[in-house]
Amino acid sequence: MEPELATPFRERAGRALDDRFLQEALTVATTKFITLRREAFAELPEGDALRDQARAIKEATLQRLDYWLERLIERIESRGGHVHYATSADEARRVVLDIARRTGARMAVKSKSMATEEIHLNDALQAAGVTPVETDLGEYIIQLAHERPSHIIAPAIHKTKGQVAELFARELGRETEPDPEVLTRIARAELRQKFLDADLGISGANFAVAETGTVVLVTNEGNGRMVTSLPRVHVAVMGVEKVIPSMTDLAVFLAILAKSATGQKLSVYTSLVNGPRRGGEPEGPEELHLVLLDNGRVRQIAGPLREALNCLRCGACLNVCPVYRQIGGHAYGYTYPGPIGILLTAMLNGPAAVKDLAHASSLCGACMDACPVRIDIPKMLIELRREVDQQGIAPWPERAVFGAFAWLLQRPRLYRLSARLGRLLQRPFVRGGRIRWLPGLFGEWTRTRDLPAVARRTFHERWAALEREARR
Amino acid sequence: MTTKAEFFDRIRAEMARTPGRAPSALAARPVRPREGLDVLRRELSERWRENLDRFQHELERVGGVLHRVAEAGEVPDVVAQIAAERGMHRVVTWPRDTLGVDVAAPLITRGFDAAVMPGTEVAAAERARLRGLAAAADLGVTGAEVAIAETGTLVVVSGAGRPRSTSLLPACHVAVFERDVLVESLVQMGLVLEAWHEGAEPSWRGAAINFITGPSRTADIELTLTRGVHGPKEVHAVFVERGLSVARRA
């Protein structure tokens, strides 16, 4: 299911670092995203207050999650919509396939949805004889390339225009210059008829408003509107944590979401879907289905990753992360990359899945600063590291070294002795007060960072000397 | 398959294990949103000029164009000019009732191929034909239920005589609006939405509410801004000072 995982994380990361195309694309894109976001919030003096408010709303909703979900379901059903319940990814796939089968769908147009990426819906649709067509330009590109998204909101961030032009020539038989304008026009033409022909529209949901039974989609290209308006049946797949109580709350989230994601004041299209087509309306789907997805979320209501349930999927933490900026999304190996992606991967796949990834962070805290709802990602990453260690799934050298260190710290005399010993042994390796290279197992540390040398006089020794002086 | 009861049992079991810990508060909702909206509209009616200027500034920032006309009767002129300048010929438009002005007839007189969308329920085959018209059209003319100054956003609501595709499928979208639909901010738009959903909804309103902030765009290839991916490449807002009569606001 996760093809990238055939190679170990370190190798994947190393390969990304050696990929010059990727390095350039990542630097340009993330730097631009950071600038756009900063400019957008500079124009919004109440931005910080809105972020605090958004965070408080998310927590309040979570504290009464059952109530708000019940309310949402009641309102959607009163409008003639259908709600389905999926505990696992497998169940979510089966729910969507059942709907596709019942409606006799041959082709499904999709608007960008991380929830459907997470459950690997496209493979399942294909196997069941329903052709899935990704319509977000970035998603369309990576679908043609048989790849997976490398960024939550810019899935093809890792591709250059030249690579896209080559791809279109190969897959669509359209030879063209590597000009984004021309390439976009080709995609528009390719996809237009598919929107009109598809029987099934599949989307995610950025929010669902409980009091009104409204599914909310935020897009820039207009494909979200197509997918929810043109096909006969619309299915939205949504994690349970996306419910919010009211339209007043929605206004707060809309005020910060696009600014955090792309630096826009508002994305081009915010679509509020209030059920299937109504009497008198000339267009709109005959059927609306909402699939409520658990897939590991519910057990975190009382779990160590509870705060990660507040995530809006804006991608801001990816752009500022020094690790993501170096290795990109694919090296992480799972659906959700970046700092929040590590937490979501642990949520979906269990802590064992992140035994390496939990360390793919410098804990600098830039992610938390950028997060529109101020999720304390570093704190949870540390907790994950502890959990990975306690469950004995951390790599053995790591456990051995830290185990030995812990044992030593509890024995002051031995610890002091070891400092003196270290001072002796380090001699051949110290250059300018730092150790840049160590042999064997210890080389794992110095491979990517320096180690400060043991001081000529340790703190213990200086303290003891001070005490002697004071007594005199 | 998981039943609703099983699904909620698991959620409640987890909730029972966590007392609310972190600070939490929902946004303060208006108690009587419709009354609140009436009061707001009266206040806004005194600031519409400033708000229109702000709207224009923000719309232009996202690549849209504002046109101002004094009388509703001038709207067809503006539409004709936009179409002519771009060599566009086929126009679809909302009917007079929902647009507030008849655009099609004057356009046909000038030689454009203009089709009016129906104002009442039509059979499925006819609906398919109308959608085909919208898909083939170069330019679509709609109304707008709200214009948000802070963001340059046009809010378009679907319904009878308000097909969604008119503002979506043609390469150029023209939205016609008047002063009393202007609001200042997203927060005020929250109040509008609360008011719209208080009590039973009026029958004219359909299932889709769309915020449209400028032309369709993407930056998916090397973060290069490109307009008109799936939705319109151009968005024009026509502000009408007097004489627009839209049958709505029940």
Given helix and strand content, the structural type of chain A is: alpha/beta
What does the largest sheet of chain B look like? 6 strands, parallel
How many domains would you count in the coordinates of chain B? 1
CATH topology of the largest domain in chain A: Rossmann fold
CATH superfamily of chain B: NagB/RpiA/CoA transferase-like
**How are strands sequenced across the largest beta sheet of chain B?**
1-12-7-4-2-3
Give the neighbour order of strands across the main sheet of chain A.
1-10-7-4-2-3
CATH domain fold name of chain B? Rossmann fold
Short description:
Chain A has 472 residues and is an alpha/beta fold. Chain A is built from 21 helices and 13 strands. Helices cover 50% and strands 11% of the residues of chain A.
List the helices and strands and how they pair.
The complex is a heterodimer of chains A (472) and B (250).
Chain A: H1 9-18, H2 20-42, H3 47-63, H4 65-78, E1 82-86, H5 89-103, E2 107-110, H6 114-118, H7 121-127, E3 131-134, H8 137-144, H9 161-172, H10 180-197, E4 200-203, E5 207-209, E6 214-219, H11 223-229, E7 233-239, E8 243-244, H12 247-261, E9 269-273, E10 287-293, H13 316-320, H14 322-327, H15 338-349, H16 366-370, H17 377-390, H18 396-409, H19 412-425, E11 430-431, E12 434-435, H20 443-446, E13 451-452, H21 459-471
Parallel strand pairs in A: 1-10, 2-3, 2-4, 4-7, 5-8, 7-10
Antiparallel strand pairs in A: 5-6, 6-9, 11-12, 12-13
Helix pairs in contact in A: 2-12, 3-12, 15-17
Chain B: H1 4-16, H2 33-45, H3 48-61, E1 65-71, H4 75-85, E2 90-93, H5 96-99, H6 104-109, E3 113-116, H7 124-136, E4 139-143, E5 146-148, E6 153-159, E7 172-178, E8 182-183, H8 186-196, E9 205-212, E10 217-218, E11 226-227, E12 234-242
Parallel strand pairs in B: 1-12, 2-3, 2-4, 4-7, 5-8, 7-12
Antiparallel strand pairs in B: 5-6, 6-9, 10-11
